[in-house]
Amino acid sequence: MKYCNKCVYPYYAVALEISEDGICSSCKSFEKSELLTQTFWKERRRKLDNIFKDVINSNSTNYDCLIPVSGGKDSYYQAHLITKEYGLKPLLMTYHGNNFLPEGDHNRDKMRHDFDADHIVWGPSVDVLIRLNRATFKIMGDMNWQNHCGIMSAPIRVAVNFNIPLIIWGEIYMDFAGMHDPDDFVEFSARSRLEHDLRGYEWYDIMEKSNEKFSKKDFNWASYPSDEEIINVGVRGLYIGNFFKWDPNAHTKMVIEQYNWKAAEKPFERTYRTMSNLDDRYENGIHDLMKFVKFGYGRASDHASKDIRTGYMTRDEGIEMVRKYDHVVSSDLEHWLDYVDMTEDEFWNIADTFRDPNVWWIENGKWWKENIWGEPCSYGEVSLSQKEKKKFNENSLSISRRNGA
């Protein structure tokens, strides 16, 4: 595996490219963003001012804008900018996937008090969510597909139903891979929703591919509006990261000081940050474990890479975070297995089928991979059947031949 010489991302992280100088496309994108001048940001702010003036001058909308929120640090920052700095009246909208941490519940429910805003919380049937957890884990190795789908679908449906043409999102997450230059003006699109957030699967694909019993009515929250509905309302989604320099650590400091926002009181087992992903107990845990199982890196690599770029951590410190956290099988696995009525053996039998042969190899009945600190290590027993093991080894051999090994 190749690793970036500047951060701790491996080559296979979020479709990165690593150039001849050993620096990943995400770091290069960040370097470009650091060159943006105050004049650039003033022009971007002026552009947002004009957009909001158009909204305020329009009498056809029920709310000035819609803000998809989880109650996390970033959505608090979004709501702060919109309500306190611009004086607008937004509708807050939360997709509820049923597994908020206690601190997440507290922060989410406090938002309508802190921002004088109406707040809709839309949560699917818990029985449907449990069956979706099982189904999408088996189909794509991602039990949190329902969260990605809900967050990127339900707000658009609400915007259409309430005649709200403007949706305010947070950071431009696609910048992580250098997919866009910092001065691109990226807007939300149905294509990015399907290809990136939904992993290429719509709700009707899950119905078709799953052994679970679902009806169309189970997916009202996931049903994306038609082009005609969106055009009639004029819905567009803007990222606040297009207009303000994005710094999650600074956002966290601000919302704690001004709103008594709560980070996680109990440290996570798979990352050192305590202020991220409080809206789903599995996001930093079992869901992220599956990323490690698939691609050989995890949430600590994500967080450390960001903090290295922004100067909150050295690369050596980041490597230690990766060594400490990325491989951990977190205790929420037991909770999730009970949630979906699955045994641990069943879990690993399915999880191992998603291992990437570009990353993993089998030796003496164990899974092995290269590491950023230069020492290959083994990570657990192989749970594949003989047939699956043979197929994996054939794929791994094919990759080695293509690479000239």
Explain this structure to me?
There is one protein chain. With 405 residues, the chain is mainly alpha-helical. It folds into two domains: 38-242, Rossmann fold; 264-402, no CATH class. It has 16 helices and eight strands. The protein has helices at 25-34, 38-56, 73-85, 102-114, 126-140, 145-161, 190-197, 203-209, 227-233, 248-259, 286-295, 299-309, 315-325, 332-340, 344-351, 386-402; strands at 65-68, 90-95, 118-122, 166-169, 236-239, 360-363, 366-369, 377-381. The longest helix is centred in the N-terminal third of the chain and has 19 residues, at 38-56. The chain is globular, with a radius of gyration of 22 Å. 42% of the residues are buried.
Q: Can you identify the CATH class of the largest domain?
A: Alpha Beta
Q: How is the quaternary structure best described? A: single chain
Helix content: 40-55%
Order of helices and strands: HHEHEHEHHEHHHEHHHHHHEEEH
Rg computed from alpha carbons, rounded to a whole number of angstroms: 22 Å
| Shape assignment | globular
Tell me, rounded to a whole number, the average pLDDT: 92
Detail the poorly predicted runs: none
SS element count, helices: 16
- Structure classification: mainly alpha
